[in-house]
Amino acid sequence: MQIGLQRFSDIQRDLDQIKAHNAHELMRAMEVSVIRDCAEMAAKASLFRAESRWGLYHYRVDHPQRNDSEWFCHCHLKKGDDGVMTSFKKAVEPYIIALDADELQAYERLRVGADAA
Question: Where are the domains of the chain?
Fold first, then answer.
Protein backbone atom coordinates (compact mmCIF):
# COMPACT_ATOMS: atom_id res chain seq x y z
CA MET A 1 0.00 0.00 0.00
CA GLN A 2 2.82 2.39 0.83
CA ILE A 3 4.41 1.80 -2.60
CA GLY A 4 1.02 2.41 -4.21
CA LEU A 5 0.59 5.67 -2.30
CA GLN A 6 3.98 6.86 -3.55
CA ARG A 7 2.96 6.02 -7.10
CA PHE A 8 -0.33 7.90 -6.67
CA SER A 9 1.72 11.02 -5.89
CA ASP A 10 3.65 10.57 -9.14
CA ILE A 11 0.40 10.12 -11.05
CA GLN A 12 -1.02 13.28 -9.47
CA ARG A 13 1.97 15.28 -10.72
CA ASP A 14 1.30 13.90 -14.22
CA LEU A 15 -2.41 14.75 -13.95
CA ASP A 16 -1.55 18.31 -12.96
CA GLN A 17 0.01 18.69 -16.42
CA ILE A 18 -2.72 16.96 -18.42
CA LYS A 19 -4.34 18.83 -21.28
CA ALA A 20 -7.53 18.20 -23.23
CA HIS A 21 -8.27 19.25 -26.78
CA ASN A 22 -12.02 18.73 -26.61
CA ALA A 23 -14.87 17.95 -24.23
CA HIS A 24 -14.43 14.18 -24.64
CA GLU A 25 -10.75 14.30 -23.67
CA LEU A 26 -11.60 16.60 -20.76
CA MET A 27 -14.20 14.11 -19.52
CA ARG A 28 -11.67 11.25 -19.75
CA ALA A 29 -9.02 13.32 -17.95
CA MET A 30 -11.42 14.10 -15.13
CA GLU A 31 -12.41 10.42 -14.93
CA VAL A 32 -8.77 9.38 -14.54
CA SER A 33 -8.36 11.96 -11.79
CA VAL A 34 -11.38 10.63 -9.89
CA ILE A 35 -10.22 7.02 -10.28
CA ARG A 36 -6.80 7.98 -8.88
CA ASP A 37 -8.46 9.72 -5.92
CA CYS A 38 -10.60 6.64 -5.21
CA ALA A 39 -7.56 4.35 -5.34
CA GLU A 40 -5.69 6.61 -2.91
CA MET A 41 -8.69 6.70 -0.59
CA ALA A 42 -8.95 2.89 -0.62
CA ALA A 43 -5.25 2.50 0.16
CA LYS A 44 -5.29 5.06 2.98
CA ALA A 45 -8.44 3.59 4.49
CA SER A 46 -6.95 0.09 4.37
CA LEU A 47 -3.78 1.26 6.08
CA PHE A 48 -5.77 3.10 8.76
CA ARG A 49 -7.75 0.01 9.84
CA ALA A 50 -4.97 -1.97 11.56
CA GLU A 51 -6.76 -5.33 11.67
CA SER A 52 -8.26 -7.94 9.34
CA ARG A 53 -12.03 -7.97 8.91
CA TRP A 54 -14.70 -9.22 6.50
CA GLY A 55 -12.86 -12.35 5.41
CA LEU A 56 -10.74 -11.72 2.34
CA TYR A 57 -12.23 -8.27 1.68
CA HIS A 58 -9.87 -6.61 4.16
CA TYR A 59 -7.00 -8.91 5.10
CA ARG A 60 -3.72 -7.49 6.39
CA VAL A 61 -0.72 -9.75 6.72
CA ASP A 62 0.73 -7.45 9.40
CA HIS A 63 -2.56 -7.51 11.37
CA PRO A 64 -4.15 -10.90 10.54
CA GLN A 65 -6.69 -10.99 13.39
CA ARG A 66 -9.96 -9.16 13.88
CA ASN A 67 -9.77 -6.73 16.79
CA ASP A 68 -13.24 -5.70 17.98
CA SER A 69 -11.93 -3.97 21.10
CA GLU A 70 -10.23 -1.27 18.99
CA TRP A 71 -11.88 -1.56 15.58
CA PHE A 72 -15.60 -2.26 16.09
CA CYS A 73 -16.31 1.16 14.60
CA HIS A 74 -16.96 2.95 11.36
CA CYS A 75 -13.81 4.27 9.74
CA HIS A 76 -14.26 7.51 7.86
CA LEU A 77 -11.97 9.26 5.43
CA LYS A 78 -12.14 12.84 4.31
CA LYS A 79 -10.10 15.17 2.18
CA GLY A 80 -9.35 18.49 3.79
CA ASP A 81 -9.18 21.88 2.11
CA ASP A 82 -5.42 21.36 1.89
CA GLY A 83 -5.98 18.20 -0.19
CA VAL A 84 -4.66 15.87 2.52
CA MET A 85 -6.79 12.83 3.31
CA THR A 86 -7.34 12.01 6.97
CA SER A 87 -9.01 9.04 8.62
CA PHE A 88 -10.97 8.89 11.84
CA LYS A 89 -13.16 6.49 13.77
CA LYS A 90 -16.85 6.88 14.55
CA ALA A 91 -18.71 4.69 17.03
CA VAL A 92 -21.26 2.18 15.78
CA GLU A 93 -24.72 3.21 16.95
CA PRO A 94 -26.54 0.67 19.12
CA TYR A 95 -28.61 -1.84 17.20
CA ILE A 96 -32.31 -0.99 17.04
CA ILE A 97 -33.24 -4.66 17.44
CA ALA A 98 -31.30 -6.71 19.95
CA LEU A 99 -29.31 -9.53 18.36
CA ASP A 100 -28.51 -12.77 20.11
CA ALA A 101 -24.97 -14.23 20.05
CA ASP A 102 -25.79 -16.54 17.12
CA GLU A 103 -27.08 -13.64 15.00
CA LEU A 104 -24.03 -11.51 15.81
CA GLN A 105 -21.77 -14.17 14.28
CA ALA A 106 -23.94 -14.96 11.23
CA TYR A 107 -21.75 -12.99 8.83
CA GLU A 108 -18.58 -14.68 10.07
CA ARG A 109 -20.02 -18.09 9.24
CA LEU A 110 -20.46 -17.00 5.60
CA ARG A 111 -16.80 -16.01 5.14
CA VAL A 112 -13.95 -18.26 4.04
CA GLY A 113 -11.76 -18.87 7.07
CA ALA A 114 -7.97 -18.63 7.18
CA ASP A 115 -7.78 -22.38 7.88
CA ALA A 116 -9.32 -23.04 4.43
CA ALA A 117 -6.50 -21.22 2.64
Answer: 2-111
pLDDT of residue 111: 66
The structure's pTM equals 0.70
DSSP, collapsed to helix, strand or coil, labels residue 109 as: helix
Neighbouring C-beta atoms of residue 98, cutoff 10 Å? 7
What CATH architecture is 2-111?
A: Up-down Bundle (1.20)
Mean pLDDT by 10 residues, the chain (117 residues): 88 91 94 92 91 82 90 91 91 84 79 62
**Residues of 50-79 as b/e, b for ≥16 C-beta within 10 angstroms?**
ebbbeeeeeeeeeeeeeeeeebeeeeeeee
Cβ partners under 8 Å of residue 55, min gap 6: 111, 112, 113
Q: Burial, 83: exposed, middle or buried (Cβ in 10 Å; 0-12, 13-18, 19+)?
A: exposed
Contacts 24+ apart (CB under 8 A), 82-85: 85/40, 85/41, 85/44
Measure the CA–CA gap between 4 and 96, rounded to whole angstroms: 40
Q: For residue 20, which amino acid is it?
A: A
